[in-house]
Amino acid sequence: MKTNLNVDVHHLARVEGHGNIKVKVENGSLKEASWEVVETPRYFEFMLKGKHYTSAGILTARICGICSIGHCLASIRATENAFGITIPEAAQKLRLLAKHGETLQSHFLHLFFLAAPDFVGLPSAIPLVDLKPEIVALAQRLKGMGNRICDAVAGRTTHPVSLQVGGVAVMPDKQKLLDLKGELEGSLEAMKAVVELFKTFQIPDFVRETEFVSLKGEKDYPFIGGNIVSSDGKEMPEADYRKVTNEYVTPNNTSKWCKFSRASYAVGALARFNNNHKFLHPAAAAIAKELGLSPVSHNPFMNNVAQLIECVHAAHDSIRLIDEIVKMKPATQTMEKVQAKAGTGVGAVEVPRGILFHCYEYDKNGYIVKADCVIPTTQNNANIHFDMGSLVEKFASAENMTDEKLELLCSMLVRSYDPCISCSVH
Amino acid sequence: MRYLSIEPTKPKVAVFDFTSCEGCELQLANKEETLVDFLKAVEIVNFREVSSAKSDDYEIAFIEGAVSRSDEIERLKKIREKARVLVALGCCACYGGVNKLKNAFDLSTANREIYGNYPKDSMPVRAIKDVVPVDMEIPGCPVNKEEIERIIQHLLLDINYNFPVYPVCVECKQKFNVCMFEKGQLCLGPIARAGCSAPCPTGGLGCYGCRGPAADPNYDEFFEIARRRGFAEQEVNERLSFFGGFNGIAMGVQK
């Protein structure tokens, strides 16, 4: 190990929210390697108290500007489970389509704008506007497509309006959906170009054995509701999420930390891939092979690759959903009648950064008595921290290691998780 | 590119985030069809969410989020010293946003319940203008990128930008929507400021007033409509306090 190394990153760039990295190697031994979340707390669980069920999804969407659709979906699912409501089939399909739109929007935002600059040695994607306009055009087109799906189905990309307790308020315009289908079909070729681009990226060679937690697919790659599964061989219903998450507070982080079978666990695209790869669309599975990702992968940097694979899956599945939705009769019901009642409900949804839980207790008039939200990045923060120690131990001894190179590696590690930090604190 | 024989400037722009969801910053990277034009019209020199390049040499600073911790006050004051124009971006920066809902409860109780033995540093939420002078406020939760583009065009040509003074109802009617009250939903459309193109009522959701009040809102008549339609004071007041833009306005309270 090189004798002395020092990394001190205040408010890491190209991630959502505020976190710091500190690494210290002295006389060849590791003194400190930490990931600290310093985001200001907003106390959402407290804000939810006394709120009417119609406002819960609107409020919790504001936990996160990138995955607001995911939060809204987890929120309304928790409420529907508390009230004992089953939503119409059309609404289920529309919600999944909105979910796919968000996955595409969020993953491509991360892959092109947040992660890719590290692999091409740039501070951001902005210089690419002049250097590589063809890459920017790809990014615009694919991320834009995700946003257009969200706009059409949820009424808006950031902070959706049509996803409501009972179903989806408005059936999207048929012609708009067919236009999107055409766009999705065309995007499959564009995604192949992204795969070629990713083949040129040097993914750091690093593994640390990790427990991966996600929803469990029964017949399909899972996105909304179902059982929770861990790569350590445990399974339980979504209502028992607290037995998995075991949140605890640490002195240096405004985000809580989580642990399940080990000191920490990971959620996100790589966890979903590791636990549910057999349900991927064949085209997505083929790309996994092409990019050298095989289950179970314990390399956190491969989360980038897993996100790209999920984009291909989401595009194919969106085409299927649109085909099914446009065949429905014009007057197809998309909203179920809602009757508030006292009770507790949990909603688990696989959002871009991993499994998300909302849990609400309601009084008989439909006002929230108690609320709990466990966010994907909250579940990842401890794992990022422990990965960092391992990463430094492995790479600090490399020849020609410098503070700058180590800073880049540690930053890339955090970015691989695509953390949503303000979300994790909420 | 010249317009009315004026050569537009290419200002150095910085974007900073405080207590928020960072969704308004994200809007700057959205509307992909004109993103390249947008990136060419300004010079982005500091924007932590999308770039690790950092410069303290900027003319326009966009501030997303509200202030809720003492270190944010210091950070904000330093930005104010450097920026020629300071713009509050989005509802949290303009009014405190949903974050402000926390001002209604006892913080030490919340801290104990959520963080147990390790309470975190926090203070009542304040809008940006309550901490430093603000040159322009762009409302919305989130902000509307089309409006941002219009504002940037005005800033580049040094022309004053006028926000709409009329209420959301005007834009909602232009979309041929059935009134949300007719659908049995509460809606702040009659008193909330437009400029958003009414996405919420169009998508089947009554307005929550994220852009604050329209000019000269007729609150008395609005409360009368809400009462006639059977909405309870609690529900109306929850809606009015949701985004922090209707400070001090409440149904059932004598002015």
Structure commentary:
- The complex is a heterodimer of chains A (426) and B (255).
- Chain A is α+β, with helices and mostly antiparallel strands and 426 residues long.
- Chain A has a single domain (44-425), classed as Cytochrome-c3 Hydrogenase, chain B (Orthogonal Bundle), CATH 1.10.645.
- Chain A is built from 14 helices and twelve strands.
- In chain A, strands 8-7-6-9 form a four-stranded mixed β-sheet. A three-stranded antiparallel β-sheet of chain A has the order 1-2-3, covered by helices on one side. A three-stranded antiparallel β-sheet of chain A has the order 10-11-12.
- Chain A is globular, with a radius of gyration of 21 Å.
- The two termini of chain A are 39 Å apart.
- Chain B is 32% helix and 9% strand.
- A five-stranded parallel β-sheet of chain B has the order 2-1-3-4-5.
- The termini of chain B are far apart.
- Chain B has 255 residues and is an alpha/beta fold.
- Chain B has helices at residues 23-28, 35-41, 70-82, 91-95, 107-115, 145-156, 168-174, 199-202, 219-228, 233-241, and strands at residues 12-17, 43-47, 60-64, 85-89, 136-138.
- The chains are: A alpha+beta (426), B alpha/beta (255).
- At the A-B interface, helix 1, helix 2, helix 4 and helix 6 of A face helix 1, helix 2, helix 5, helix 8 and helix 10 of B.
Structural class computed from helices and strand pairing of chain A: alpha+beta
Level-2 CATH architecture of chain A: Orthogonal Bundle
Topology-level CATH name of chain A: Cytochrome-c3 Hydrogenase, chain B
- Give the largest interface: A-B, 62 and 60 residues
Q: Number of DSSP helices of chain A? A: 14
What oligomeric state best describes the polypeptide chains here?
A: heterodimer
Overall CATH class of chain A: Mainly Alpha
Give me the Rg of chain A, rounded: 21 Å
CATH superfamily caption of chain A:
Cytochrome-c3 Hydrogenase, chain B
Kindly report the average pLDDT value of chain B: 94
Number-wise, the strands of chain B total 5
How many discrete domains of chain A? 1
Strand order of the largest sheet of chain A: 8-7-6-9
* Percent helix range of chain B: 25-40%
